[in-house]
Design a protein that fits this description.
Blueprint: H1 8-23, H2 30-41, E1 46-49, H3 56-66, E2 67-68, E3 71-75, H4 82-86, E4 87-92, E5 97-102, E6 109-113, H5 120-123, H6 127-132, E7 134-137, E8 140-143, E9 149-154, H7 167-170, E10 175-177, H8 184-193, E11 207-208, H9 209-220, H10 226-241, E12 245-247, H11 251-267, H12 275-286, E13 291-292, H13 296-299, H14 304-318
Parallel strand pairs: 1-9, 1-10, 2-11, 3-6, 6-9
Antiparallel strand pairs: 4-5, 7-8, 12-13
């Protein structure tokens, strides 16, 4: 990146370079690639839920390979312990004192693979790290790297050996997305490309960790008018008051919705957020945090996920959109 101050245009170019790098590996999934980039630059975390083998971990690895940042991968299994994630204090007989051995969470990009295969106790080891960017062991706090991003993958709950993520854990993920199966053309291309080489091996970083920090700092200054702020709050409050939902969006969800909207605006080369930025992100930011009322989904012949999606689309259509946004 150039040494002169960032502008909306240079921000968009830098972000496009990361996107282009990822799409060399993840073909035909532009929305998933954009979601990963938004979470990185908005200082959030990404939850990818889908069946095995559709590229969830590959997306996380492609993002990590596209920026020159430290990467650690944690394979979550039923026997994984919290200390494996956070680290432990080990007695040093030479110095006759305990010393801290960092766990796998001490990296700038942490890939939490199949997070819902671990026990709730182990899942909770990430709570402090994701919210406060630190880990506390034996009363001592240890700061994490900057930037810090958790990309977690999870299998659908109906699959064997999974534990549902608790509400507090889900609320710490900025967005939840699904990869879905590739179209026929992309799948054929994948077969040809990966016959002799792994495309990840050909990726080189297009930006350094310092450049990513600069992008994050710049996007914080994207302007959000009071009218757009009120619009975001109105969307959140509508989820809390809707009769088909027994758990609505938290204040953290509102904050992360606005942060994500800032990045979306910046990716489009704007220094200000418009209502469309907010509305477009409501479902990926809110859906995984909400819980449908008991009996509502079955009474209407829908799954809980379908019910929540329908409710959010209805809310976006009902909440008044501000006319003046700047």
């Amino acid at each position: 990146m150039p040494d002169h101050p960032l502008t909306a245009e240079s921000f968009a170019r830098a972000a496009e370079a990361i996107e282009s790098s990822i799409t060399r590996v993840i073909d035909g999934k532009p929305d998933a690639v954009r979601a990963a980039l938004v979470c990185l630059l908005a200082e959030g975390h990404l939850l990818i839920e889908d069946v095995p083998g559709v590229g969830k971990t590959m997306l996380a690895r492609a993002l990590a390979a596209s920026v020159d940042a430290s990467v650690r991968r944690i394979q979550f299994t039923p026997d994984l312990l919290p200390g494996d994630v956070t680290g432990v204090s080990v007695y040093n007989p030479v110095d006759r004192e305990f010393e801290f051995k960092p766990g796998a969470v001490f990296a700038q990009i942490v890939i939490a693979d199949e997070i819902n295969r671990a026990s709730p106790k182990t899942q909770s080891a990430l709570l402090e790290a994701m919210e406060e960017h630190q880990v506390t062991v034996d009363g001592t706090s240890h700061p994490l790297a900057d930037p810090f991003l958790v990309v977690a993958t999870q299998n659908p709950l109906e699959m064997e050996g999974t534990y549902a993520l608790p509400e507090a854990q889900r609320d710490r993920f900025m967005m939840r997305i699904s990869m879905g199966y590739p179209d026929a053309e992309s799948e054929v291309l994948m077969l040809r490309q990966r016959e002799h080489i792994n495309p990840l091996d050909a990726l080189t970083p297009v930006l350094g960790a310092g450049d990513v920090r600069a992008l994050i700092a710049w996007v914080r200054g994207v302007h959000v008018s009071p009218a757009v702020e009120e619009y975001a709050v109105g969307l959140s409050r509508a989820t809390r008051e809707h009769p088909d939902l027994r758990l609505g969006a938290s204040p953290r969800a509102t904050l992360q919705l606005v942060r994500a909207a800032k990045v979306r605006a910046a990716l489009d080369g704007r220094e200000f957020v418009i209502p469309d930025d907010v509305a477009a992100l409501v479902e990926p930011v809110f859906a995984h945090r909400l819980i449908a009322s008991r009996g509502t989904a079955s009474a209407r012949g829908r799954s809980s996920t379908e019910t929540i999606g329908a409710v959010l689309r209805a809310i976006v259509g009902a909440v008044r959109v501000p006319l003046a946004t700047r």
